[in-house]
Write a structure and sequence with these properties.
The chain has 252 residues and is α/β, with parallel strands linked by helices. The chain is built from 7 helices and 11 strands.
Amino acid sequence: MHTRSFELTLDAFFNGRIKVAQERSGYRFSIDAVLLAHHAPCREKDTVLDLGTGCGIIPLILAFRHPKIRIYGVEIQAPLAEIAMKNVWQNNMENRIEIFCRDMRALDTKATKGAVDLVVSNPPYRKARSGRINPNRQRALARHEIAVTLEEVVATGYRMLKPKGRFVGVVPAGRVTDILSFLRACGLEPKRLRMVHSRMDTEAKLVVVEGIKGGRKGIHVAPPLVLYGPDGAYSDAVLEMFEAGSFSSFWS
């Protein structure tokens, strides 16, 4: 892989036990990635695939929380994939996390040594011609359907999953109809959904959705998740996501 110099920042998670480097001026992960990682239903010895891994934040969180799983991250942008690899090495997780720099649309199960148990994705949010495109190419590719569409992300998830495998994604609330229809159309039956609100009195900002490959019809709508309290600080539910010593189901 071509190597170039980055101006990086370094953030710490879980009382400094995980360190995450990011490019200062490029695409940077947000609370969306943390939410997604904490709604991913990992089981012991699962194989997990992260589509559009960016700097590798979701594999790092999942590997920290679940010591016995194996994770693959796919990123089409070489600079981001390079940073993800560095993050894996820096956190001594190279035996558990593998990063691929490639187009997910060409991905097959040979790369992951067989079909996977769980696919997670924080996909490009906006359609290619909707709204202002960020002049920073890295951010534009991460947020707009330029290199891959939401429908293609879902289709890749279906192709890579075992029967009864799980797909978990987070999208803007305004695209909930899109992701639900794409999931069902390709054979990933929507099974769980959770709306995410900035505050108690605001409209939903995001939605987290889980689909099961070949699942039966019927969806569970979890209680809403509120990100911020009246004082503007993170809510207790969000703060728990950053604690090193505890992990519980954030669907309930």
